[in-house]
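Working notes for the structural subgroup meeting. M.R. asked for a predicted model of this chain before we commit to crystallization trials. I am recording the input and output together here so anyone reviewing the notebook later can reproduce the run.

Input as submitted:
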Amino acid sequence: MSHFPHIKYAGLSDVGRKRKNNEDSYGLFPEIGVFCVADGMGGGDDGEVASAATVRAVEMFAKANPLPPKAGFSKDSMVAGLRGAVNSASSWILKRAQEKGLKGCGSTFVGVLFDPCCPDTAIALHAGDSRLYRVRGRSIQQITKDHSAAELIGAKDENEINPMFRGMILRAVGIQKSVEVDATPFQVKQGDRIIICSDGLSKMISDRQIVSIVKESDAVETAVKALVAAANEAGGFDNVTAVVVEVDKMPPALPAVELDVPRFDEVADNSAHADRNTLDTSSETGVSFDLGTATSSTNTSCRTEATGATEQTAITIPEDDSDSAADPGTFEAEIPANPDKTAGEDSAKEVNKKSKSNVGLWIAATAIALVAVAVAVAMIRKPAVVSDSPESVVGKAVETNSIYEARKAEELRQQRIMEERNRQEREAAERLARVEAEERQRKENEAKLAAEQERLRREAELKRAEEERIRREKETERAKEELRLKEEAARRQAEHERMRREKEAEHKRAEEIRIRREAELRKAEEERKRMEEERVRRAKLEKERAEKEKALLEQLTKKKSAALAERRRKAAFEALRRVCEDKSAIAFVRKIKGIADTGSVNDICRMFRPVLAAHTKEEMEKSAVELIRVMKPIVVKLTECAEMYKSDAF
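Returned structure, recorded in token form:
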């Protein structure tokens, strides 16, 4: 039964468009709820080995610590175990780099740990600039914080910082014996998608593009393919690796048990323990690191993928063979400072050493020979037992023959020893002669070298003296030139000062002239304004006088017209009164009514000709019209009076 039925996952790695080999690795370990990405560095196969070793360490930890049925390890112990695995990989990578003389070899690490005891909580572990995102709905959150120089100074873009610090990371696996792996807990819920990626993805596409691609993908496999393709389309300047983990419906929480995980320092100190497995590569010679918890001894391939890499690096657990394991790094090599001198000294030491060994061998052989001779002499001087039996005679003959052969063999052996000693002495003499010749040659070479050095020293002194003379001449010339330049500068300064004063005086005169002209212009302008104001005032007074005269004239005209009209009206009424007095009212009314009905102006004019005789025709017509207008209501009243008179009501 799986402890993580609610998790769907997929991973993909690609070499990119610019790189020749893939230094990225990723691991999918659903049996313990761990998914990780490692981005190697160091160039060539070294980056591949570093990233693969990091993921391999996590895999070995996963295999060595399977989750118990219906229970889970506490998250603290799991985090400690994963940190120990990563630190073991760091120690191994560092040791391998030191043995190979490599610099800058290492790997970043980022992973997520799901807790079966608390399904809604996950823990991000990382070291370096590889990232972990959480996509929820249309939002994205970066859970990890880059261990880089750009992040340290708060720069949003690496182009904002000094070029020497661009791409610099502050933590990595394999740079030191141990690495500090940050653990960041965060909440997860159904529908969340966790994106674990190398910087080849995060630096190529934006967070908004990541959200869009993940939301448009209906499966995690589709999502990782789309993310890698988008990074390559954006340029693909680096290896691209992505792992997508989707969280489905949450299962019930399981009880927690403690995992017995040794500390990293204990694991490192006991790395030579016989019953613990080691991690090594087939291309290396016995370099290994101890995980401290692995118990399997079968060869298994590393759970890593590097799609697009030229060659897949295989990291295996070897069989336990303590006899075949060699301890690397136990030999020492000393490089002499002076090869010529050291060669002679080594030859002399070798000759002296061999001479001493030959003398010892000769002394030992001589002592053995003397002992053998003494024994033989003693046997010869020993009184013989007289026996007349044939057996005794034969025995004596055999004994005498044996002593003779032994003596002859001893003489031959002594002769060979002497010959060997003479040969070794000759060889020693020859070696000593060669050493002396080499020593003489060395001394001659040293003398030549000393003479050459003396010659070079003298040449250097002469050169320095010549350079000093040239320097002094240059300094003298420079001083003369500086003096000339100073005099020239002083002359120019004086000339400039004179011209400046002249310009200032000229400017002052021009300014005075300008001020005087401006004063004259201002005075003329004031005079013009005064005259204009006087003209306007006079015009205004003239206009006011004309208006007053006109008003007075109009007033007089109106008065004359009113008086004339009044006189005319009075004359008309006077004439009418006289007419009325001469005739009866009825006849007058009828006559007036007839005139009013006909409305003839000529009749009116003829009627009032005596009254209006003194006026022109136009004035008469106007007076007649005015008279008709005035007389109409009078006629009406007179008519009413006549009617009343007829009806005896008057």
